[in-house]
Design a protein that fits this description.
By secondary structure, the chain is mainly α. About 75% of the residues lie in helices and about 0% in strands. Helix 1 (about 5-20) runs antiparallel to helix 2 (about 25-40), helix 2 (about 25-40) runs antiparallel to helix 4 and helix 5 (about 75-90) packs across helix 6 (about 95-105).
């Protein structure tokens, strides 16, 4: 990674984000995310800088994970399946058939 400084920086940003989610407690996570956002936003790599801006925008939602340890991964999975069924069901003239197909896949 020494030959590719941008790739090195992106790798370390990914590792920092993974370590962040192993933190125990809301207060510690709150301090850690602020430091991480500041570090990412000062980056010379545009992707890392963008990640810092995204974390700043979604800060409270990210920190909510540390209160209940819940994510929206299951909902995202259902949305993905619904999109897949919609693409495959192109041409269904009856919305009820689409609904039934969606229920059979996600049910």
């Amino acid at each position: 990674l020494k030959k590719h400084p941008h790739l090195n920086e992106m790798y370390h940003a990914k590792e920092a984000l993974q370590c962040f989610y192993r933190i125990k407690g809301y207060e510690k996570a709150s301090v850690a995310i602020d430091k991480m956002i500041e570090r990412f936003r000062e980056s010379k790599t545009k992707e890392v800088k963008r990640l810092g801006n995204t974390l700043k925008y979604w800060r409270q939602e990210v920190l909510n994970y540390f209160r209940k340890r819940l994510t929206n991964a299951r909902l995202e999975g259902f949305n993905n399946k619904a999109s897949l069924v919609r693409r495959r069901a192109y041409g269904y003239k009856n919305p009820n058939n689409y609904r039934l197909r969606l229920l059979s896949v996600c049910g």
